[in-house]
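hey all, quick one before standup. I had two proteins in the batch that finished overnight and I want to keep them in one place so we stop losing track of which output belongs to which input. First protein below, input sequence then structure tokens straight from the run.
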Amino acid sequence: MADYEQKTPDSASPDDKLLEDSRKGLKEQMDDESSQRNDMKDDIKFCTLDQWPADIRREREGDVENGPRPCLTIDKINQYIVQVVNDMRQGKPGINVRPQDDSADVETAKILKGLVRNIEDQSNADIAYANAGESAAKAGLGFFRVTTEYTADDSFDQDIFIRPLPNTMGVYLGPHIMPDGSDAKKAWIVESMPVAKFKEEYPGKKFDVEDFDGLGQGQEHWHSGDTVLVAEYYCLERVRHELYFLADGTTITKADYDKWPEEAGQKPAVAEKRITYKEQLKWAKMTGVEVLDKRDLPGKYIPIVEVIGHESWVEGKRILWGLVRPAKDSLRMYNYFASTITEKMGLAPKAPFVGAVGQFATHGDKWRKANRVNYAVLEYDATDVQGNAIPAPVRQGATPMEVALLNQMQVIEHDVQTSLGMFKAATGESESQQSGRAILALQRESDTGTYHFGANLGVSIRHCGRIIVDMIPHYYDTKRIVRIIGEDGEVQTAELDPGLEVAKQERPGMASIFNPGVGKYDVTTTVGPSYNTKRMEAAATFVEMAKGAADPASAAVLRYLVMRNSDTAGSDEAAKLLKSLLPPQALQAMEQKEPIPPQAMAVVAQAQMQVAQMQEGMQKLQEENVQLKAGAHTDMVKIQADHDAKMKELQLKRAIAEEEAKLAREKAAAEIELKRMTAAADAEIEGMKAENEKNNAIKKLDFEKEVKREEMSKEVAVENEVEAEKVAPQLIDSMKSIVAEFAQIVAQQQEFQNKLLAEMGQKKTITAKSSSGTTLTATIQ
């Protein structure tokens, strides 16, 4: 057992046991990760342009005998790191919350999702995510944390925040396997604090170096003489519980069963019991000799999230690295060759002018400066010292640069790209002889080679979402109105009530109340373009469709949709103005939110397909054109002819497609008009039927009145038998005549209706006349 592993006696205080456990665990992690963390520190220094080993730089720059030699640093690594980090920022995963059991609610899950977005927004979580992702890209390891802060100085309410941990080397997680650190049971966040600052923040606490002498060998990191190491210590402590399964089907711990309230009635019988263990999250802030603060925290996760780069396990040991380490040797070799070329050029002699003695006598000062000053005119003496005519001085050729060194630098640069899995196309560079497809293939290969960095960040953000969802019921434990943020950035509010027995309670005419503590919820992440990016893509799609719109109405609708999905200045006002110019049918469909007719959907789908085909054809023609330009000149005439023929064929297909689309629209309009006219004719026939029935009813009523009058006359006639005998035959004949006339009217009405039904669909005029002189006329479409 090492000296620092001092056994704590059973009589020691809880703080002493806590300190001993923390010191022992931290020392084990430091020893286990020491070698790897040294490599990570060197990787980070390499990114800050400290790329020469200290001993080699000291030897080259301190050469007293031959003079200092250049140690150039050509930054070739940070462009690739920035590319990977910015890709992670653009494709930041979004946290989704979904219900997991029967007690959970879908609407409550949406509220939790909006609340998580609000926490990310208030915390500026993008900074924490990018910081950890950049550290993982450089050194292979990064961290951020989830913490809580009081909402105000005079409040006990707390809000959840996501904070960065920029000092990666100051964070240690206990033994774990998961790449997000979710299975770690211990964690430390350490900070070396100057003694003066420590005395100011923690007055009355031990700070003298003598106070730390008793820690033993291997614990010197707790006090360096000028600094005191302050550590935040998290641990999940297993607590033993006895679990009861009661006769009524409920499960309860023995402690809660012993506290059964009397007003709840008699205790149910215990049907079964077993021993179980629950984990309690504990937090403490300490030095090596003293606990500064401690408390128990709710939750089942240590609120520190790990982000990794490359990961490999060798002989049971975890190895992590980022982009820098595989490329360091190639980059150092590149710096060495650049320094060597520079040194050779600096030591190479200047190209001198050669002439006879006496040629430089008149303007000797200018000739001596000719290698450093650009003179427009250089005059020379045309005779030598003996008076003989001589030609002009001649400059000797410059020392040629070694081509092998320059070629080797290109080879080294390719080695750097190979070790990174990224090529020039990934950073926007391309060779002039490369085709568009070749450039896209290189970009896709580079994206695939570095995809795991963004994927690992997504795994870590998902764990962050689990931590937040687990913490929300514990910290939002009072009635409050919280702010939630939708996917489109719209801000709303929701009311939380932890006293509800259900996850969601609806209130008539009012907003629902939610309890996030009821039910279990799971967390997933989605990686892809942001909401604003989707809006931009939609706007671009509508622009292309508007260009190919065949009628003004469709173009007006598409232009309105372009502005509504645009983020440019004045887009809202432009969208309002364009909305006022929309056709009435479009405005009515927008207000009533009616589904688009199938005919119109078919036309739009056909148009989109035609546009896609035309774009594909144009792309093929462009690619063929590029290939043809690279071919022999003798084939250009034939190629141009084929190109023109294909263009004409494409234009013909486009014209045919436009004509077919136009015919389809006209056909759909004709079908709609036919249905409208048929409905109008049916309505007109129904009206005529109703009118005829009304007339028949009136006549029937008149007939009944006439019968009643006849009956009254008959009753009067009965009083006089003599008169009755005379009038009776006439009365009978009159009644028969009336009955016959009514039967004739009914027969004529039936004949009229039969003619109407027989001649429907044809525009005809039917006229019928009753015996009473009434003329009935109907025109049928």
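OK second protein, same deal, sequence then tokens:
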Amino acid sequence: MRKWQILIILLFTGFQVIYAQSPVSGIIKDSKTGTPLVGTSVKIKGTKTGTVTDERGYFSLPAKPGDVLEISSVGFKSITYRVGSGPIDIGLEPAFAELGELTYVGSRGAPRSKATSPVPIDVVKIDKLSIATAAPNLETQLTMAVPSFNYNKQSGGDGSDAIDFASLRGLGFDQTLVLINGKRRHMSAFVNQVGTRGRGNSGYDLNSIPEDAIDRIEVLRDGASAQYGSDAIAGVINIILKKDVNKLSINTGYMGYYDQKYNSLNAVDPSQFYTGSWVDGNTFTLGINDGVPIGKNGGFLNIGANILASGKTFRAMPDTNVTTNAKALPPNVWRRAYGDGAVTTLGAMANAEIPIANTSTKVYFFGGYNWKKSNVYAWTRNFSNNAKKYPTNEDGSIIYVPDIMRVAGNSQGTISSDDVYYNPQENVYMKDASFAAGITGTLNKAWNWDLSSVIGYNDFHYFGYKTFNASLLPTSLQATKTDFDDGGFNFLQNTTNLDINRHFDGVAQGLTLSFGGEFRYERYRLYAGEVDSYLNGGAFYVQGGDTTYKASGSEGYPGYTPGDEVNAHRTNVGGYVDVALDVTKALLLDGAARFENYSDFGFVSTYKLAARMKIGPQFNLRGSVSTGFRAPSLQQINFSNTNTNIIAGQLVYVKLSPNYSVITKAAGVPQLTQETSDNYSFGFSYQPSPHFTLTVDAYLVKVFHRIVITGNFDESIPAIAPYLVQYNVSSVNFFANAVNTTNQGIDIVADYHKSWGKNRFSAVLAGNIQSITINKINIPPALNDTYAHQQAFFSTREQAFLIASAPKSKFSLALEYDKSRFSTGVHITYYGKLTTEGFGSYGYPDLAGTGKQGDPDLAFNGYNPLVQKDDGTVVPENFVFNGKATTDIYFSYGITKNITAYLGANNIFNVHPDLAVVPGALNSWGDSESGGPFDSVQMGPNGFNMFAKFALRF
């Protein structure tokens, strides 16, 4: 080769190397928040050369000093920038302050501002929300901030008391998908078996995620199965972890309830109830967050941790003198320990990103661990009507255990065995762990890609505490066995994703194409308890000369048997495509399709079309149409247990039979299949000034084949009668695709904020008006033969609970004023009307037109429940909880630039739900689902809640 050819090649190669090593690069971010702006367009003016920023806000272009860059991003003011010799770090100003807040849910491509999104999205800053309230956990706080978000603490629901699930738009706990940093979160291993709502649902325990690790939460209030997959029928909650470095924050505080009315210490005879202190539910919290930089390219590691210790609350009717006060109610003998359980939890979560130098690629990981212990009281065991559940001598006399048993009305120091009672306790230990890792980058300066894998694990373990298995040997030795390992269950999920997107500037006003694939593995395991926790020891007691066998298993929550054990798994493969097209600067169209195949029930597909139209610079119309699905969880397919119930004074054993069981198949209950939905939404966003934003969104969600737990079936179904004998149970119930429903409503959010000098004022109104309709009950032919069997499948009582999944309306008004170091706020929340039903104590009505009252033997099954009033009339046993409002207030003061003190109270007027009783019908008292003075509705039963907190920032 000639020398001049070699020289030309060297010069050309060197030019390429020099050019490739020194492109113009920089970071584009939000000037207000410092958040990197993803998908920002950066072009060299007068050329076709351009690119978009990646998730770090980073871009790189072959520009030279003196070139002019045109930089634009939806929701921000466009600018031009002349290239100099140094690195570029640019902050874009929002076009309007609130419209510029970017969200990452709602589209699989580039993020958009809240108001320019075609679907409704809330963005909740957790630091600001959690520090200025006595609300003890994340879900309670979100209930105050998000219009159709609903959460209620359960009481008397076994495991439901220990874990906290929430819902959107009145739908099921498991019909909202939860993401962390955009990646699918694993569900809890627990599935609701009893409780006021959510029976048959599993869900996501948001309270297992440390609050101090969270930067903000994006709540997409729209069906999104086509974009994100199973569970997203009601919407998506995306939890964004903090990225702060060198910003140590410490939040610590105390909260406690002072209920001057319903604290059980106020009772005329406190010995009738369990009691605590005048200020109860005492809660201590500590949260810490800090981060450190990694490398010199914007890498970081942020860690947040939280500790919470919360005590029990005890609530009861204060006046039980029914002979002297017409408004009094008798002692509630079924729930002598009604209230919240005690909770201790500690957890931590890390979030890290490590950019690879001189590339657009970065490695990231996040994950954490949470440990929780819950101690709750089960329903009361009274010796007078539940002697079968007590340790006794051979002659049937009680073996009194002072550390566990109590005596009602013992003010004179006398003990009558008929007045003895105890409440079994349940200790639940929960362990939750997760870890996600991935790598993301840009190929050919155009295609953004993200490869990730997430593994999550949740374990839920029951222990009977201060309780008995009365069927053990009938000697005093049985009284020494008071703690039991009842067994439990766990759930593991591993999700691997590849997501790809690209923005095309030359198509209309811009097109973003996104597509990807997902592989998911799930495993559910149920493990048995120790033998004594479920053993039927065969012991009996003598009463009136008769011998009667004892209740088997540990009281409160019998242990799982080896026959309940299961180790099930499945896989899922899916793919999606999402296209967002800015047809014009005013019109945006977004379409998505998703296809998935489950190894256990087959193929599903879903679709979505959303649109947004700008009607002027301040007004946007938006709407969507979509189909959705939710796969039956492994928990629903495989869970089983045997429990004991008292019905009409009789001890009965009830088995929840898994879907694969021979009993279930014999009863004619088909294999579980996916829930599907049709979703419609339409609304608008309006911002007449930079200080005020209004969004209104109407929705209609039709869900088909919702999974619930049926009522109880006995030997009147001939096909299952032999199995009842085999399993030594009186009846069985099942999971089934039982119900078609329609949820419709309207969400309203109005936000006003104004700053002048050192002053700032804000007012936010978030409201929801909704209704739930049951369109059809899908009764299998084998169970559709009689009225009793139809009602057993999904009774009027169960229908009432489903309809009461959310109040008919909920409005929240938050007012805040800040001046220099001082701030104050008022928060008013209105909860609309709810109605639930009792079990019934009079028999069902004459629906057949025979002129005779229905069979009284069916009166305790919730079939059109009736109750006889004190004046002899018979009325429906409806518990009506009328609309109520609570008022919260707080004050804060910056003691120094690093320390701020907060003081305030929630529910300052000590408002409670209405009592769970039919007016004028003493027989209805204690006949609610919770058995206590209130059901788990509206603002909860605990009343006035005061708090003091300190926030330290360094």
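Flagging for whoever picks this up: Residues 1-21, 96-100, 846-853 have pLDDT under 50 and may be disordered. The longest strand covers residues 731-756.
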